[in-house]
Write a structure and sequence with these properties.
Strand order of the largest sheet: 5-6-1-7-8
Number of domains: 3
Largest sheet: 5 strands, mixed
Radius of gyration: 24 Å
CATH topology of the largest domain: Dna Ligase, domain 1
CATH class of the largest domain: Alpha Beta
């Protein structure tokens, strides 16, 4: 039996939910945007009316206002979006237990064999009608025999539409699409393709796997499989948890960071949050990664290894600062910083002892960190703070641990 995979994409999800709950703005151009006062002022998503003005996801709000002076800007309400995301998945669960989220607003569903007299297209149309009638928002659905083409189908026709891509018609529908429409082809990869005369998904499909491997490394093989419709990855069952591969936090500073002391304050705020989240998961890391963006929006990413697996806030943050000092030249002030940890082991992973007592000191520091974690859990994030934080409350007066939001994959992809 040929697989029947659906990819359901809630159209302009955040903006649609906001307009549903605020009838007075439904007929106006609306965007959901970050806090302009904290320099997080970018367009997160927009409604269809705002799209007609040429407003794009991830552009600055001031730029969007120039295109549309009557623009309505709404701050994001993540609890509300999570509630609606859960409600859509309750509808999907009436048809299958193989439901794999792709962010808050998108899901893959494997409906192979779901209902003796109903095929994938029939189920897709029923889901589209139910979501619109029961929740008041619209969805676009792709129907295909693999996850990649189902995703392309949900993007192919919007809003409130169903598109089927089969083994017989995929060359006519998929191959003429731009290369950047293929899943996981980002801007830099698309630019690399263009420089080699590869402009469409069909161009990728007609390249040999060896050529794509030479061009892009091992991901070249993946793109060849995707473009030719050869992907057979299964849809995960609802409730299955993905393996955690990294934990991180980043922040745009409320003002430009002019010196190393400024960077250190923000780095420790982020480092405490990342290490605390890691300890909650029972992990220790070996690799620390930093992302630094200057006020011209140029970005560098660097990573380095710790001497041993650790969940010690101080050790992780000191490594992040070491990476910063080695790699940032201070030609411009710093606008934003991110820290992430990867290469995990469980916290009870056997540690190699040494003659200098490093393992014992690391264990002692982590016990102290856990005590501080318990205090913050009981009395709030600011009940215990490092003295460094008090040197600049403007930089340290936020809580990335509680404000941490996991955005959908492709969240900042222009729409």
């Amino acid at each position: 039996m040929e697989r029947s995979i659906l990819h359901v994409d809630c159209n302009k999800f955040y903006a649609s939910v906001e307009c549903l709950h605020r009838p007075e703005i439904r007929s106006r151009p609306v965007i959901v945007g970050g806090d302009e006062d904290l320099r997080h002022g970018i367009v997160l998503t927009k409604n269809e009316i705002a799209s007609k003005f040429g407003i794009k996801t991830a552009e600055p709000i001031w730029q969007a206002r120039q295109k549309c002076p009557d623009l309505v800007v709404v701050k994001p309400n993540y609890p509300l979006y999570l509630r609606f995301s859960a409600l859509t998945r309750e509808i999907y669960a009436d048809y299958t237990d193989q439901i794999e989220p792709f962010g808050l607003d998108e899901c893959w569903l494997d409906v192979t064999g779901s209902g003796i007299f109903r095929n994938g297209m029939t189920i897709a149309e029923e889901i589209r009608r139910r979501v619109k009638f029961e929740l008041g928002i619209t969805v676009s659905i792709g129907v295909s025999y693999n996850k990649i083409f189902a995703k392309l189908g949900s993007d192919y026709k919007k809003p409130d539409a169903v598109t089927q891509i089969t083994k017989r018609n995929f060359k006519d529908i998929v191959w003429p699409l731009p290369a950047q429409n293929l899943l996981y082809v980002g801007r830099s990869t698309a630019a690399r393709f263009r420089s080699c005369g590869i402009f469409t998904i069909g161009d990728i499909a007609l390249c040999t796997p060896e050529y794509l491997h030479m061009l892009l490394g091992k991901t070249g093989y993946m793109y060849h499989v995707f473009a030719n419709g050869l992907d057979n990855e299964p849809v995960s069952k609802m409730g299955n948890k993905a393996v955690v591969k990294s934990i991180g936090n980043s922040s745009t500073a409320p003002r430009d960071l002019e010196n190393e002391q400024d960077v250190k304050v923000l780095m420790y705020v982020l480092g405490e949050s990342v290490a605390r989240r890691m300890r909650e998961q029972g992990f220790c890391c070996k690799t620390v990664c930093i992302t630094v963006r200057d006020n011209a929006l140029l970005r560098i990413e660097r990573q380095g290894k710790l001497p041993a697996y650790s969940a010690d806030t101080g050790e992780i943050t000191k490594k992040a600062m070491e990476l910063f000092r080695k790699n940032y030249n201070w030609r411009r002030p710093v606008r934003s910083i991110g820290i992430s940890c990867t290469d995990f082991e469980q916290e009870d992973f056997p540690a190699q002892l040494d003659l200098y007592g490093c393992a014992q000191r690391r264990a002692k520091a982590q016990r102290l960190d856990k005590t501080v974690d318990e205090l913050k859990e009981r009395f709030g994030n600011f009940c215990v703070q490092r003295g460094l934080m008090l040197t600049d409350r403007g930089l340290s007066g936020f809580n990335p641990y509680s404000e941490n939001v996991i955005h959908p994959i492709g969240y900042f992809k222009p729409q």
